[in-house]
Give the backbone structure.
Amino acid sequence: MSGDTPEFTDIFTISSAMGCGSSMDSFDEPKTVVVFGATGLLGGSVARALLNDPFKFRVRCVTRRTNSDKARELAELGAVIVNANLDDTKSLEKALANADAMFLTTHFWEEKNKQKEIVQGLNAIDAAVSCGVSHIIFNGSENVKKIIGRDCNHLDSKFSIEEYIREVDTEEGEGGSPAENEEKIVGLNYTILRLPFWYENFYTVFKPYKLKYGVYALALPMEDGILDCMAVEDVGECVYDILCKPKLYYGKTLGLSADRLSMSNIVDIFNKHFDTMKFKDPKIKIRDYENFKFAGSKDLAAMFEFYRDGTSMVRDIKATKKLNSRAKTLDKWMDENKDYIEGAIREDEEDGQT
Ligand SMILES: NC(=O)c1ccc[n+]([C@@H]2O[C@H](COP(=O)([O-])OP(=O)(O)OC[C@H]3O[C@@H](n4cnc5c(N)ncnc54)[C@H](OP(=O)(O)O)[C@@H]3O)[C@@H](O)[C@H]2O)c1
């Protein structure tokens, strides 16, 4: 598809020309993977990793805005841009027609509506099942409410979608021959990814805030907990690897991480990389954080409580490195990305926010 015309028009013509719809066992021909959230950080990382290998993958990127700059950039990298909305089942079925696999990430923060996120996730799963997509990779979560005893809407929603995927999987598997059920050539195969805190948050939602001239706070209420973390940019390679050897990962739930750090480790790494700025941990308590006056503070406080307690959050650095041997520690990531953090701080200062 030409980079000048990212508008997606005729999915059926294009997909049949691609020869899609085969199982994910071999790479005689490229597999078609539909990537949700491709204009965002997570889906974008997945889309770019797959687009790097056009011999193995054809990538359809889902967006509601086919003419956005991000959509155009993906089209220039070789993606087919698909106009679809998680609220609109028909658009999802068009996007998923004849696809081999789907990477699904759902969204809470735009509308901050747990039920809506669940319905959107179910819409995508139903569409994938009705289109015969053979492998779903989903950005899921633990049942945080059950673990810590209070609502964490943006993670609980993802757990509900995970549960639905497992139910569909069971239904699809029922009645098949043992051989069919073992390999699930027909029916739904899934891989759940549970992600850690990602480093890119340090120049987006959790960018440092100014305490006084030259001194900045890293305001994560982790208390004495250890934070599993990784670069979202490294998740794409993990998904690429899973899609290269899908059968190894059918039915698996994988917790990813590339580093495990206390707040004091994080502060030390920041201070090592910045000469003219000093970083501190303001030691915010979770019970104070949840009363902060911004939308979603309770959900984020619950998320940090879950992170801090740690025991139920299984993230596996060794398994992650097996999927992506180049997955970076925070220290290494900082070598290449500290300019983004500095840029985010400067932007706030120019806006007079800090
Ligand atoms: N682990 C962590 O540290 C961490 C940090 C941040 C986020 N997350 C989670 O990771 C997920 C992805 O976050 P992100 O930061 O990559 O997102 P993002 O950069 O904000 O991008 C949002 C993406 O979702 C798409 N989207 C939103 N609503 C949609 C709809 N109704 N139909 C189709 N597409 C829709 C957008 O597409 P268009 O606008 O182009 O249509 C865009 O591609 C979210 O679930 C978020 O909660 C985790």
The CA atoms of residues 8 and 157 lie 30 Å apart. The pocket of NAP is lined by residues 36-43, 62-65, 68, 85-87, 105-110, 120, 139, 154, 195, 197-198, 201 (CB under 6 Å).
